[in-house]
Design goal:
By secondary structure, this protein is α/β, with parallel strands linked by helices. The chain has one domain: Protein tyrosine phosphatase superfamily (Protein-Tyrosine Phosphatase, Chain A, Alpha-Beta Complex), CATH 3.90.190. It is about 45% helix and about 15% strand. It is built from ten helices and seven strands. It has helices spanning about 5-10, 20-25, 45-55, 90-105, 120-130, 135-145, 155-170, 190-195, 200-210, 210-215; strands spanning about 30-35, 35-40, 55-60, 75, 110, 175-180, 185. The protein has a five-stranded mixed β-sheet, with helices on one face. A two-stranded antiparallel sheet has the order 6-7. β6 (about 175-180) and β7 (about 185) form a beta hairpin. The longest helix has 16 residues, at about 90-105.
Length: about 220
């Protein structure tokens, strides 16, 4: 059973406890998903650090971020908003194929959005489904262990579920609804929802981290 502390950690809400602060900081850094594939928020995109990691390609998946020229690094921009109604599917094959071409050419890629929580992780999950030999459930668990703040919005998860079915002929993630909270989430996040049976705690998370916008 997931306890309250685990829920706080999973939503990256920091407090005076050093362990929580450390996990929160992890989500502001560059996460290595595969030896050649990295995931981050915009704040972590620093040219010197990219060169240290040997990054050859940066993919920016946030429409609100300006294009950032980087020396000797190819930059690709995806015009995508982080809202459930955004059409993630129209870009999935394009970015998955781009990442695979980077891998085949022995390149190293960093994919990011504003926070590295919803948009860019969605593309990483899709890549792992299409080219990584993983189910969507396995992909999410893999990425979540490395970067516990990942949380694609509800609409993106629905696109990813459909993408997995088309690519693999199966759906390993399903949407579930908790009638007590009136909230729908992917079942891979269901343990987190169980912790939120206290309505006041759920409301606090909604207000502080935009939880309602993702899973309402």
């Amino acid at each position: 059973m997931v306890n309250l502390e685990a829920a706080v950690e999973s939503f990256c809400i920091g407090n005076s406890d050093g362990k929580l602060i450390q996990k929160r900081n992890l989500c502001s850094e560059i996460s290595s998903i595969l030896p050649w594939l990295f995931l981050s928020g915009a704040r972590a995109v620093r040219e010197a650090r990219l060169h240290e990691l040997g990054i050859t390609n940066v993919i920016n998946t946030a429409v609100e971020l300006p294009e950032q020229p980087l020396d000797n690094i190819e930059v690709t921009t995806v015009q995508l908003q982080d809202v459930p109604g955004a059409n993630l599917s129209q870009y999935l094959h394009q970015i998955c194929d781009k990442l695979e071409s980077i891998r085949l050419s022995d390149g190293r890629a960093l994919i990011h959005c504003v926070a590295g929580v919803s948009r860019s992780p969605s593309f990483v999950l899709a890549y792992l489904v299409k080219y990584g030999g993983m189910s969507l459930r396995e992909a999410y668990q893999h990425v979540y262990i490395i970067r516990p703040c990942v949380r694609p919005n509800l609409g993106f998860f629905e696109h990813l579920i459909a993408f997995e079915y088309l690519e693999r002929g199966e759906s390993t993630v399903h949407m579930v609804t908790n009638p007590e909270l009136g909230m729908t989430v992917p079942d891979v996040c269901e343990n987190e929802l169980h912790v939120l049976k206290d309505q006041r705690w759920a409301l606090s998370i909604k207000e502080r981290r935009g939880f309602e916008n993702r899973y309402a």
